[in-house]
Design a protein that fits this description.
With 375 residues, this protein is α/β, with parallel strands linked by helices. 37% of the residues lie in helices and 19% in strands.
């Protein structure tokens, strides 16, 4: 056993995400046999004293098939309708599978508003703990029928990492249709090699990620973003093939399967995790090389002198992405509106009032409200 895998053997609280390609077949039919097998394995892990929270994809694919569609709908109303139908089908399949092991389940559907609002986010934690105290396995998914375009949670990989951070989980397991993270796309290059362990997510590593595949919203890129959130939250994350026999038990035994993402030594505080990963950015602030160095090397605030361009329409207090050389390097809560930041870009803090008529803050984003995402 590799030393970095040993902590997995003592993991007590787990968040497990089942991808669309795991729970549903390519034709949209629920993979009942695999769900039953996974339910049995999860029930066994529960009986051994672990706490499990499930995140399940697949509602849109299953609902689309039930409605006679051959492909996943791109337009939001059709996707919402498909999710409404598919969600009921999926939860019925889970209920039937877990009932064979006398394991109760409960469903929670979330929107980005639930994640972004700090009070709702706290209520989610309390609800999950209450269910776990009662011996109920929560099954979470995005509430697609109530989703507003542009304000989606997005991929369930991200949701899994957010939930894991909120409940102080020890481990996230992404059960996927791929074996793990490869040096390149194994579907296109037979020389691709599995990367067994990642301790640092560099831009070069992220560039290897393939896009969405197989009809789900996610793909390897979304899994790497989830891994980044988990690593910065002090949570281990493993990507492993969901159809692999006893995949979960083997991960918990420390077997070197899939790809393990090792968390950083210093994890972000709860509020910083909320800013960096729970909020949906409402715009972008493009910064120069000097600002990039100040943010990443010195932990500085973002000053107007380092701002080169502003994209989007955001208000004071909104979350924004900070981008340098085409790469998102940080996120933060902005002190001024998009129009005001455009007007003050490139100026010194003492010149802010002359540019916009007032000055409440010297910084565009204060360092206490800023999270660096990359090394």
């Amino acid at each position: 056993m590799q030393p970095t895998r040993k902590p997995l053997t003592t993991a007590r609280r787990l968040v497990i995400k089942l991808g669309s390609n795991v729970v549903a077949k390519p034709n949209g039919q629920i993979n009942t046999a695999l769900i039953r097998r996974l339910a049995g394995e999860i029930a066994g892990v529960e009986a051994a004293g672990k706490e499990i929270i499930l995140i399940s994809s697949g509602a849109v694919r299953v609902g689309s098939a039930r409605l006679g569609r051959q492909t996943r709908p791109d337009d939001l109303p059709a996707r919402q309708a498909a999710a409404t139908v598919g969600q009921g089908e999926l939860i019925a399949a889970y209920r039937s599978a877990f009932a064979r092991h006398n394991q109760p389940i409960g469903q929670i559907l979330l929107t980005q508003a639930d994640i972004a609002d700090s009070r709702r986010y706290l209520h989610l934690r309390n609800t999950l703990f209450s269910l776990r105290d009662l011996g109920v396995i929560p099954i979470l998914n995005e509430n697609d029928p109530l989703t507003i375009r542009g304000l989606e949670i997005g991929e369930n990989d991200r949701l899994a990492a957010l939930v894991a951070a909120k409940v102080d989980a020890d481990l996230v397991v992404l059960l996927s249709d791929v074996e793990g993270f490869f040096t390149c796309d194994p579907r296109q290059d037979p020389s691709a090699e599995l990367i067994h362990e990642v301790t640092r997510l560099t831009p070069q590593l992220c560039d290897r990620a393939a896009g969405p595949a197989g009809g789900g919203r996610g793909g390897m890129r979304s899994k790497l973003e989830a891994a980044r959130a988990a690593m910065k939250s002090g949570v281990y994350l493993v990507i492993v093939r969901g159809s692999l026999p006893n995949a979960l038990s083997r991960v918990l035994a420390g077997e070197e399967i899939g790809t393990l993402f090792v968390p950083e030594v210093e994890k972000l505080r709860s509020r910083k995790r909320w800013i960096g990963f729970a909020l949906a950015p409402r715009g972008q602030v493009i910064v120069d090389a000097g600002a990039r160095r100040a943010l990443m090397e010195r932990g500085s605030s973002l000053l107007p002198v380092g701002v080169r361009e502003v994209l989007g329409d955001f208000r004071q207090g909104d979350a924004v992405s900070i981008v340098a050389d085409g790469e998102e390097i940080a996120r933060g809560l902005v002190n001024y509106s998009a129009e005001e930041v455009r007007a003050m870009r490139g100026c010194h803090s003492r010149e802010i009032a002359a540019r916009i008529g007032y000055r409440n803050f010297d910084e565009v984003i204060h360092r206490d409200n800023l999270v660096v995402l990359t090394s």
